[in-house]
Amino acid sequence: MIFKVNRLILLGAVVAILQSGALYAMVAQRASILRSGTNLTLLTEPVDPHDFLRGDYVTLGYGIATIEANKVTGTPPTSTGFADIYVALKQADDGSWGISSASWQKREDLAPGEIQLRGRTSGYANAAIYHDLHIQYGIERYYVPEGEGRVIEVQQRERRIEAVIAVSPSGDAQIRALKNNGEVLYEEPIY
């Protein structure tokens, strides 16, 4: 009987350690991107106001979230469902960032000044060459202190909120800060 109890305690400890390790890995990856990623600033776009605020986060839309299917180079995926897509961004003379190219495979030949984001898209198998692909980068939701999301929602409608994005060398992105007319509204801690 004592052997069974010790075995259960040991099993419980192993499960707790594995869960803690997985949580730590998620936080460490996010902190790594925020600490050493390349920064770029994107203008956000309003999202349907009836679905803009859910609880304590705001939903952000970006002009780089849609691309014509015929502008994506490389070999399209053969399976259905979500697929990775790599979008290269370049900064314009006015300081804004826009799409310079997109590929189904990670590009190693980026032009100077380009930053590559890894996104996910679905529906590519059914997309004709003239249809738009909708891309998610993992930066569409930003958590704010309780009760403060409404302020961003109002500012989003009146002006354009900018999101400062940190991008890792592999193309993963995290929101570093939100700005309104250059003034920092919220900034993520590096942990």
Question: What are the key terms here?
Answer:
six-stranded mixed β-sheet; 37% strand; single chain; 191 residues; 2 helices; alpha+beta; globular
Could you report the average pLDDT, rounded to the nearest whole number?
A: 81
Reading the helices and strands in chain order gives HEEEEEEEEEEEHEEE
Taking pLDDT < 50 over at least 5 consecutive residues as the criterion, the unreliable ranges are: 48-54
Give the strand order, joined by hyphens, for the main sheet.
5-10-9-7-8-6
Rounded Rg: 20 Å
Helix amount: 10-25%
Q: Structural class of the secondary elements?
A: alpha+beta
- The total of helices stands at 2
Quantity of strands, as a count: 14
Relative strand content = 35-45%
User: What does the overall shape look like?
Assistant: globular
Can you summarize the main beta sheet? 6 strands, mixed
Straight-line N-to-C gap: 45 Å
Itemize the secondary structure elements and their pairings:
Elements: H1 2-36, E1 38-45, E2 53-54, E3 57-59, E4 61-62, E5 66-68, E6 72-73, E7 83-91, E8 97-103, E9 115-121, E10 132-136, E11 141-143, H2 149-158, E12 161-167, E13 173-180, E14 183-187
Parallel strand pairs: 6-8
Antiparallel strand pairs: 1-4, 1-12, 2-3, 3-11, 5-10, 7-8, 7-9, 9-10, 12-13, 13-14
Short description:
The protein is of the alpha+beta class.
Structure description:
This protein is an alpha+beta fold and 191 residues long. Helix content is 24%, strand content 37%. Strands 5-10-9-7-8-6 form a 6-stranded mixed beta sheet, with no helix packed on it. Strands 4-1-12-13-14 form a 5-stranded antiparallel beta sheet.
